[in-house]
Amino acid sequence: MFKMAERHHYISRFYLNYFSPAKHPGKVWVYTGKRPALQSIKRYVANIENFYTISTEKGDSNIIEKELSKLETHTGRIIKKLHGNDFNLTKDELETMVTFISYLRARTPALRDSVNSSITMERTAMLRMIASDEALFKKEMGENNEITFKEFKDHVFQNLESMDMNMNSHEATNVMTFAAEEIKKMLSEMKWNFFVAPNNFNYVTSDNPVFPFMNNWKMPYQPGFAFKDVEVYFPVTPKISMLGTYMDVSVSKVVTGDTVNVINSRIINNRYEYMYSNMNEEEFSAQCDLTINKLF
After folding, report:
1. Residue 167 domain-assigned?
2. What's the domain count of the chain?
3. Domain for residue 41, yes or no?
4. Does 2 fall in a domain?
5. If we measure between CA atoms, which residue out of 157, 153, 137, 135 comes closest to residue 145?
6. Cβ contacts of residue 137 below 8 Å, gap of 6+?
7. Which residue, of 111, 126, 138, 189, is most buried by count of CB atoms within 10 Å of its CB?
8. 1 part of a folded domain
9. pLDDT digit of tens for each residue in the chain (296 aa)?
10. Which domain range does residue 230 map to?
């Protein structure tokens, strides 16, 4: 069946547009650990072909992309309000922001690849077990299957490395939705702070812009969102970053340049592959008083 070709942004376009340089609207500086490149958000940045497309009886469907677009429309008005330094969000506005943040976390390749890797290992291990135990084979396959245990065993061990164990489109969608709703439950319990960058300082963002952080936490695994001492970061625009905690306090304030640089270092260290900024290499180095190579 013909598969529609459409590029889906896993980091929202309207959001990335806030990180465009004033002289280059619709573009963003992309850092990968090498020399940064100024790229078109619409064409090249944070998008994958048919990332949310699912197969149905009527053919391929973009219903997930359309539903996410509705959420982005509502969130866009709220971020515009924050961009105007109005941090007095209503209960409904804050709930919408938390929903957007939760889905932004869950819809990235970082999360999908992590889950897919676990599922692939689990499925591979299960096939190995079944192919190594005739009693388990009969239990799992039933008595009336058309393949013998020897045929199954030979097929598995001859072809296991080339078998596709990845999630299908529906499984990936279910994982995204489940993860987003679970994350939302925890983030809804948090107090949210708005940290405004001073003049001549800017926040950056990444392809994994919503992340939990704890001091002295050992990588490569991240802390869970439910830990009482966890901090959750989300750079809203180059001038505003949100910080969620379980502390019973919520503030809006202008922070120091040093604080911006500390938050930026955490954003960079928690990226999956890419960092996005309205600053070119010279501007970014000047802000941080560091070279890009020291930050990556």
Report:
1. yes
2. 1
3. yes
4. no
5. 137
6. 130, 131, 149, 152, 153
7. 111
8. no
9. 445 557 788 899 999 999 999 999 999 999 987 789 999 999 889 888 777 776 655 555 566 777 888 999 999 999 999 999 999 999 999 999 999 999 999 988 888 888 778 888 888 898 899 989 988 888 888 766 778 889 888 998 999 888 888 777 778 788 888 989 999 999 999 999 999 999 999 999 999 999 999 988 776 677 889 999 999 999 999 999 999 999 998 899 999 999 999 999 999 989 999 999 999 999 998 887 754 445 54
10. 7-295
